[in-house]
Amino acid sequence: MCEPSYQLKLAHLYAAQMNVYGDRGNVIALRQRCLWRGIDLSVTAIEPGDQPDWASFDLAFFGGGQDSGQALIAQDLLERQGPGLRAALEDGLVLLAICGGYQLLGHYFLTHTGERLPGLGVLDVHTIGGNQRLIGNIVVEADLPTVGPVRLVGFENHSGRTYHGPGVQSMGRVLAGHGDNGEDGRGGAIYRNTFGCYLHGSLLPKNPQLTDHLISLALRRRYGPAAQLAPLDATLELHAQQTMIQRLI
Ligand code: GLN
């Protein structure tokens, strides 16, 4: 077990407006895999109008949403959360963003109806809505520094096509499904400890390696490089993950 004195704080951005396909499950998975190791992970909901102290957080989660949900919170994200959140992300705050959340971390999202939603600009990506949605199961091959090579499984459903600039690293290579734009095989983007991708699922319950990678990054940032995650059984989750990969590739 890890030291029971480890404590981490997670900010859940706009849970009411941005939660599709069970994205909330990502927060539950982070909390549970912490709990099983004796790490206390507290969760703070961030609603429009809140003014949290972003420097106090270790992890953040930003789920997907309809274009209409994104339009409701885009201004709050940019204007109210922008300065504090950007500074925290530059300082290594660990953030996972899915689909609609991912799109709003980029420079902008031009929806398929022509509405231009400005993004936080933390990730050097931009998104253009198309008339045909990219839907289906997806497998992305990634290399996560604290756990090694993994094949992440998920489900995607988006009209937006996300294109990368030189300021981000690809999270992985698409082995099955559409990925960020259906054209260049990119599956998600990473900048510092900010991760954005299109994998609903929920992503983290299906991919315990990524869950543990995110917790490891947060622990090391808070408690120093010697902070280690205790090993934890994930036989069932890995069996389900493997079964899905076999069916898709
Ligand atoms: N509204 C966005 C799109 O369709 C994001 C959808 C989602 O989060 N699933 O591209």
UniProtKB/TrEMBL annotation:
Its EC number is 6.3.5.13, 3.5.1.2. It comes from the Bacteria. The keyword Hydrolase applies. Substrate binds at residue 133. Signal peptide: none annotated. GO terms for molecular function: carbon-nitrogen ligase activity on lipid II; glutaminase activity; transferase activity. The active site is at 99 (nucleophile), 200. GO terms for biological process: cell wall organization; cobalamin biosynthetic process; peptidoglycan biosynthetic process; regulation of cell shape. Keywords: Cell shape, Cell wall biogenesis/degradation, Glutamine amidotransferase, Hydrolase, Ligase, Peptidoglycan synthesis. Pathway: Cell wall biogenesis; peptidoglycan biosynthesis. PROSITE patterns: GATASE_COBBQ (PS51274). Residues 10-207 form the CobB/CobQ-like glutamine amidotransferase domain. CDD domains: GATase1_CobQ (cd01750). Belongs to the CobB/CobQ family. GatD subfamily. The lipid II isoglutaminyl synthase complex catalyzes the formation of alpha-D-isoglutamine in the cell wall lipid II stem peptide. The GatD subunit catalyzes the hydrolysis of glutamine to glutamate and ammonia. The resulting ammonia molecule is channeled to the active site of MurT. Forms a heterodimer with MurT. This is Lipid II isoglutaminyl synthase (glutamine-hydrolyzing) subunit GatD. It comes from Oscillochloris trichoides DG-6.
